[in-house]
Amino acid sequence: MKTLSLLCSTSVMLVTTTFSATALSAQTVYKDFPAEVMPELSESGELSVGVKTIEVAYPEAAMTMSGEMVKRELTLEVWYPASQSTDLAESKLAVYSDETRSGKSFEIQADAYRDAPIMATDENYPIVVISHGYTGYRTLMHYLGEHLASHGYVVAAIDHTDSTNKDVNFAESPYSGFPSTLLNRSRDQVFTLNAVAQHSFFADDVDETRAGVIGYSMGGYGAMSTVGGCYAFNDTTAATFTGTQDPATVQLVKAALNTCAGGKPSNDDTLPAWRAALALAPWGGQQQLFDTKSLSNIDVPVLFVAGDNDDISGYDGIRWLFDNTAHKDTKLLTIKNARHNVAPHPAPKEAYGSEFDLGSYIEPAWEEQKLNAINEHFALALMNCHVKAMPDYCAFLEVTGSSDQVPSGGETPAPWKGFDNRWALGLLMEGKDGK
């Protein structure tokens, strides 16, 4: 997080696209804060960050919900540790260009160098895949991409085709991309891991056997399957969420949806590379769209993050996912007085013209930058602990109960590890041991 300075086994077909960083009206959406008021692990790492936009395509035609076979292509934004040689001076700071739900274009100033050389390493970088919600865009959580890359990860964020702000006219046909989202979210995440590992720019410097996944909302719905959960749509939910009415077609839809681990028939097919998952306000629990036995067999830790007033994914639904995910290191971080928008970057100025746009960014009671910092802190702790196997970082996840430091017996509890005194208000951490 910014604190007083801006910069502190499937073959795939790949095409690389280079974008120029012409900052026409690029805005900075983060303010400078003293480090003491933000979580310790939200501080940027020592590594400079590069970013590259690449286009990737599934090696074979993908089936749509209607049974049509089509070429499926994805745009990825990939962050990575950048070479700190003189070559970096020849690169430009990137600009992220996206649009709001109503179609208003905006540009955000990046904290990463466009197409910079990757920094050579003796120990290859783990890969983290980031997956946005419905609708969204690949740089919706660019702060996590930049942050993790500055600490030694290659991080790939997906533009999920059919599910972005550009793809969906949310005002007139808000659910037009939802069937594709249900079908492809986990498939895209698994494919992205393989695509980055095989891309010519990254292949020599990444370790595809060590990976994590971060998913927000529908991205969380996908992440739960990616690490081993199996979907369990029934006739009613399959018909409701795809708009299908014909009974025979509903059966075909169910067969297409009810898969595991990126479209596989069983969670036995889960890629062993996945070491951890961060599920930010994951969708699907409120309708119990997952097979509970498969959730109990997930073999990696999942950190759930949820607002206790989430009215999109439903807090009770997120708790249902947490309760049924049995891995001993699975945890639930509750953000008190928060709704669903616990993951997006702060709103660009173009979103402030209407509630329709602004409502997909801001929270009624929380500042987005603080939420972003909390996510950075716990994402780094999770990935370093379980993906890089750095035990010192596990202690940051072992906080329990309320962060509020409510005095008891005349004594004020110590703050959570990684938070300064008085600056961790409004959080609750629960683990599988009932604490």
From TrEMBL:
<feature type="domain" description="PET hydrolase/cutinase-like">
    <location>
        <begin position="122"/>
        <end position="225"/>
    </location>
</feature>
<dbReference type="InterPro" id="IPR041127">
    <property type="entry name" value="PET_hydrolase/cutinase-like"/>
</dbReference>
<keyword id="KW-0442">Lipid degradation</keyword>
<protein>
    <submittedName>
        <fullName>Acetylhydrolase</fullName>
    </submittedName>
</protein>
<dbReference type="InterPro" id="IPR029058">
    <property type="entry name" value="AB_hydrolase_fold"/>
</dbReference>
<keyword id="KW-0732">Signal</keyword>
<keyword id="KW-0378">Hydrolase</keyword>
<dbReference type="Pfam" id="PF12740">
    <property type="entry name" value="PETase"/>
</dbReference>
<dbReference type="GO" id="GO:0016042">
    <property type="term" value="P:lipid catabolic process"/>
</dbReference>
<feature type="signal peptide">
    <location>
        <begin position="1"/>
        <end position="23"/>
    </location>
</feature>
<dbReference type="GO" id="GO:0003847">
    <property type="term" value="F:1-alkyl-2-acetylglycerophosphocholine esterase activity"/>
</dbReference>
<keyword id="KW-0443">Lipid metabolism</keyword>
